[in-house]
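--- STAGE predict ---
source: upstream dedup step, 1 unique chain passed
mode: sequence only
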Amino acid sequence: MSSHVYDPSIMMPVLKPSIWVYALIRRAQSEAAFATLARKGDGDAGAVLVKVSTLDGNAVLYRPIRNLSGERVWLPKGPLSERDIDEIIAHRVKTDPDLWVIEIEDKQGRHFLTEPVEVE
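--- STAGE serialize ---
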């Protein structure tokens, strides 16, 4: 069984979410941040959201998109109140049952993503 799937729109191998999310969680934990899988989605094709809480009542939500070259980049939303971010996530879950959600708690606000992050 392959750990990659092919995105037909870009014909590139993409690491399965079921592997990618746990790698991000391990990366955050290795840097002394708390990270957990808040919602498990489809193992082969689910989208991933990354919520980063700075432990002061605020959070940033990172959402993936593909740029014109077909590479995944992340768009931040926030900082907003953690409650507002949770409402955004709840709305997305209603429209996308395959969605994965990773929650990271880090006072420094680090996201631990290795792909580019766009500026809002």
